[in-house]
Amino acid sequence: MSTQVNTGLDAKAREAVAAGLSKLLADTYAVYLKTHGYHWNVRGPNFASLHALFMEQYTEMWGAIDSVAERIRALGQLAPQGYGAFGNLTSIKDGDPEKSAEDMLAELMRDQETIVATARAALPAAQEAGDEVTASLLSDRLTAHEKHAWMLRASLGGK
Ligand SMILES: [Fe+2]
After folding, report:
1. Which of 30, 67, 131, 158 could be disulfide-bonded to 126 (CB atoms 3.0-4.6 Å)?
2. Cα(57) to centroid(ligand 1), Å
3. Is the pLDDT of residue 1 over 90?
């Protein structure tokens, strides 16, 4: 009995799409972790609202991480796991608990934009392969991370 993937997407395309998703997974995990840390360590007069905003964002990302990883598995590839593997796949740096609230916001805003760029870069491979499921997932992730970036930007006074 063959256990080969037979879902209408060829092996090369599934590999390429999964590679893009793996980078997205690593970026999202890294920013999830940083946002959760800043939820703990943010300080200042806006503590309550930032503590809550960061919780809303890390909770959303935590839910998404599983969907991205499980899409990689449905494509017949193994999902990266562990700090070492994620560190090799992402350019996101660890957070710094000593930072001011404003610096935390600015850093997270850029990090959200980095995830947006990663998700956008992963889209052509999915579209070229006719992988509507991944394209739809990436569209959902773009929607979420563009919204996260907007909320962080607006908290800094930007448009
Ligand atoms: Fe908490």
Report:
1. 131
2. 12
3. no
